[in-house]
Amino acid sequence: MKTTHFKFLFFSSSVFAIFAIASFGQGDPSTDLPLVPEGLKVELYAMEPLLRNPGAMAFDSKGRLFVGYGPQYRNPKPDTPGDSVAIMIDSDGDGMADSSKVFATGFNSVQGLAWHGNDLWVGNSPDLTIVRDLDGDDVADEYVRVFTDLGNLEHANHGHNWAPDGKLYMSHGTSKGLTLPGRVAPKAFRDLWGVTAPEGTPDFPAPQVYHRDDYKLVYQDPEDDWGRQGGVLRCDDMGENLEIVTYGLRNPWDIGFDSGFNWLGNDNDQSEGDRIHMPFFNAHFGWGHTWSSHWTGEDHLPTVPLSGPVFDGSGTGMVYYDYPQMPEAFRGVWFINDWLRKTTFVYRPRWEGALLKPEGGKWQPFIVGGGGARSADEYGGDPEYGIPKVGSLYRPTDMVIGPDGSIYIAGWGTELKAQFNGGEQTNEGRIFRISWKDAPSVGWNTAKRQKPITHWDFDELAQDLGSAIPVWNINAQDELVRRGSLVKADLIERLSKRGLTEAAETWTIWTLGRISPFDLSIEEWLGKEGQKLSLNAKIQAIRIAGHRVREHRKNGSLPSYVVDALSDQEPRVRFAAVQSIGQARQGDLIAELASRASKEKDRITFYATWQALNSVATESELRKLLNDRRGGTRLGAMLALFHRGSLNEKAVRAMMEDSDQTNSDLAAMWIAKQSGNELIDLYPAPGVFVESVNVNMTPGIKPAKIRFTLDGTEPTPDSEDGDPGRIYKTTIVKAALFVGDKKIGNTIVAEYRKSESVLSLPVLAAIDDRTRVNDALRLLPNADISEGPGLFSAAGCISCHKAGDLGRSIGPDLSSIGDRDDADSVIRSILDPNKIIVEGYSLLTVATEDGAAYAGILESETDRFLKMVQLDSRPVTIDKTTIASRSSTHSSPMPNYERVLSPQQVADLTAWLMTQRSF
Question: Per the confidence metrics, is the pTM higher than 0.85?
């Protein structure tokens, strides 16, 4: 390995300080470093050939960085080499890894890493594997396949976090297993996906232990179909007590918790945009919902609202940061990677009741990939024509905090799948380190880490509680829990002195809560003294009480301070209380929950309350609550029974006469959903160019009428829509459904546009010679951007894609494609759509028993209905009881344009698309 030489150049500006590396030794590629805020420093910590396409990272207990990488991601073949986990080594102390050592190898695509003691947990769907170094030579000897049959590498297993409650949390997408002999996922995963296993299948197949020479990856065909939904799960060590925490996700990549043990996660791939969510126990975020799927949860009681606006991108790694090694503006914040937009964002959390939301309703760029093309002559793609690729080196995947408080970010280059030359993988792979030049030094006590942790004294262990390295927290906590009552007084004394950071307080109080589960004096202290320490300690004490009863004293009762918290003025405290009651299965507190539901105004706390009722009440008890005099109690019982699927249409129609408007609206929505419709269906979908709008009403709700108004039309100036020569008129349609004079359901607001063109659209016809990528690339410097909108319309792109004011988002939204892609990739996607298929947009085919066949993109799904958008952009709702077969194929619904668009037209269209940017 050649020695890598650094040369940092500093350019001051009001927003960004740019640090560039001049060279990497003779023959190594030059690079553009990303842009970071002024005062911060970005360095290249590791690069190819030490690693290729890194997807996951974790620091071990010695402070060494382990990285999972390799060729498995994106359409591997049966003979594709396995992924590896390697230790990055900086042997000369110059701040850059100059060598690496493979710790373990032969994995499926590595997309998650987490240390627990000396066990490295590796998410490599379809497996979840533990690897152990038994002889201390930094090479894993033992491989334990804890879970298997977890589906393929798309919508896979991610987000591994050992949390203060001593459990491993993980996210998993819709990718389901095969459920074949010897290849069976645990029951919790099967329940999440809606998979039924043969009779006699174990709920928890026993883990399998292998020597490193015997462990073999299990090829999982990427075309294996998807299950119904993804979610967040948790388990104890060795996978025991696996359970679902959160439902209704589609393709979650990462999850994490903050200093107060509050979670955030991301979820990818839906036409409405990606999303940030706040997982909690029994939360359902809408995908694959039992009766009412919904993507945002806004104004939709059956599902949970999001923790921010949906966005066009591809969220990957995320981490909470609250340490003094970053400027104050970047403490107490979340950092979120976006692979598509080549950006790391800063999310400044604020509480809206019991829901985390971003300050100001949005998040801001923190690290931005450098070198983005801004004009036609900068577009890149092929050295043959002297057109360099630009802005491709910062494609962030995972993100972790290092022992020094710096942020380490892994990333890929331009290709999603592995590239080979002569049998060797040639993809780029980078790890960047972000630090603050004025950061205080970190004294992380290297001396104690040379001793076995069992030899550490209490202070040495306590110093690691609340640290930036996840494994330091869990290892110290586990050792203190092992010592049990011997350290109870020390933990109480540490908490009582106050002055701890919130993270240290959280880990310390949970350590106390995990020891001596039958020692009721711990709950007594938590209730009398612990809750007085801070709001955070009060919330943790309530959570701990539920944890201790649920995990250890199965039929025990919660302490009185949990019940008292139901009346607290702070929504977060009430939320913690109802969560604790639900998880501890406190059936004797139904009356208290019913009372809480009757007056709860906080959206999230009310949701948690009716889910707690659903957890602790029998069906007959819930039915009794339907007749309660309090409207909120009736609403909570109705939601719980709807969630169970326990009410018939006759009963629900009676509920449409409920005196409470919210309750009657919910009943009407349920009736509509049972027919596979919305209360009011506007067709075509909002955002398209139409002369008129069709309004359909849900059948069976009579007498009824539709009232809808037009807010008028507004010409949109040419200068704003970016399409010279075309005038748009925007019409806002407001529609509401009434029974008599009573409105049922929320008013639907939709925007439609009518276009009046003063330019004729280009006429497209089949061409004799197919257009090649290089033909279009060569013409890019002289492309005519003004031709782009017309080509986008004439080629039919507007039927499925949105770009600025044009089109609709059935397929991937292209409104910010200039931020996240280069011209070469865009051209290849136009000419060969099957080359790179965005996850979630593969072709779904459905055949029904009456012989009908449908092909398109899945839009949503419930117990009864599947909705999809067909290739001609028409939506269709299919009763699932009539489906004879359904399958997803790894092909794109998008047509091939290589014999439709000429090289010049492809260049013009691409040049215009590259102007579509969000910032």
Answer: yes
